[in-house]
Design a protein that fits this description.
heterodimer, B: mainly alpha, elongated
Chain lengths: 208, 128
């Protein structure tokens, strides 16, 4: 009777924009590197601030009075171990094993959570002793730098749990692999920043 | 006029465009580590962490300036170790097509050279 472009009952034509996903995450990873470098600038500013203000105690406590290096050593070990276990998770991802990937991610998250818990314990201990951020320029810059790092780890854990749910629901599809890759870079990057923190803030603060 | 601008488009008509980039597209990219590389990075990191803590907590060197310099050096080395073994940084590109590359010899010696670029032999360098 009357002409139709598609016969009744046939599915409507679907159009794909092929180029959008043709790069296999290469563009995303490059973009994520740009983000990491901007984050690096943020930490550079906080390190510089600490470098300038880190000795201004305002007749208050110094790093040598406050820092418990054994606690810092434990925290450093936890973060280092979490970097290793995240690496193991990535190795399992390559082998397409969902279960062991999730297990290693969970262990990584636990190490991260332990790190944040010890840091919160340390901060509350300092504040209870009167070493609050308002006490001196040293403590302001200390809490700003170490606190920003701790917040990054906290959000890294939130991200990690989110990805675990995604992997559980959708498996190790290309999108999830890309996301895991981005988080791995974020996680290892935070470990690199921590090297600067424990050396420049804790160890050198303890020396004088 | 439009002919002069064309060499800027990476010489596609000449047929040597695909020689760069696009080598590994279609799967999730990024350098991957191995069990061995992660363990190497971890062991190196443990050593590079333990020594500075030992130097400071044990007051081994007896001089804070000397200790500061040594632990800063250890930190610098450990950051490089992390970048290589955990962040997998290397000299390869991240898979994106390079936006600029050295003009190839064949393009310079193309038979169309004189007609295209006239009296300005280094124009291609400026355009590409």
């Amino acid at each position: 009777m009357h002409e139709t472009t598609a016969p009744p009952g046939a599915a409507a034509p679907v159009f794909y924009v092929q180029e959008e996903h043709a790069h296999g995450g290469g563009g995303t990873l490059f973009g994520f590197w740009l983000y990491l470098m901007s984050d690096c600038l943020l930490f550079a500013v906080l390190f510089a601030t600490y470098g300038v203000l880190g000795r201004n105690y305002a007749a208050g406590p110094s790093g040598a009075d406050l820092f418990d290096l054994r606690l810092v050593a434990v925290n450093t070990t936890l973060l280092l171990l979490s970097s290793l276990t995240y690496g193991f998770a990535m190795l399992e991802t390559e082998k397409d094993r969902v279960g062991t990937t999730l297990a290693w991610l969970a262990i990584t998250g636990l190490f991260g959570a332990a790190f944040v818990s010890i840091e919160i314990f340390e901060f509350t201990h300092l504040i209870r002793e009167g070493a609050t951020p308002q006490r001196s320029a040293f403590l302001s810059s200390f809490f700003a730098l170490v606190g920003t790092h701790g917040l990054h780890v906290t959000f890294g854990i939130v991200w990690l749990v989110t990805l675990m749910v995604q992997v559980r629901r959708h498996g190790l599809i290309a999108e999830n692999q890309r996301r895991l890759m981005c988080l791995s870079m974020f996680w290892h990057f935070l470990d690199v920043v921590w090297i600067g923190v424990f050396t420049f803030v804790y160890l050198m603060g303890y020396l004088r | 006029m439009s002919e002069l601008a064309e060499p800027g488009l990476a010489g596609k008509p000449d047929g040597h465009g695909p020689a760069h980039g696009g080598a590994h597209q279609g799967h999730v990219q990024g350098a991957h580590g191995t069990f061995r590389s992660y363990m190497t990075g971890f062991v190196l990191s443990v050593i590079l962490t333990a020594v500075p803590f030992w130097l400071v907590m044990g007051d081994v060197l007896g001089d804070s300036l000397k200790t500061s310099i040594v632990i800063m050096a250890f930190a610098a080395v450990q950051i490089v170790v992390h970048m290589i073994y955990f962040l997998h940084m290397n000299t390869k590109s991240e898979g994106a097509k390079p936006s600029w590359r050295w003009p190839s010899r064949s393009r310079l010696s193309s038979s169309r050279w004189p007609a295209r670029y006239g009296l300005y032999p280094f124009r291609e360098f400026l355009i590409s």
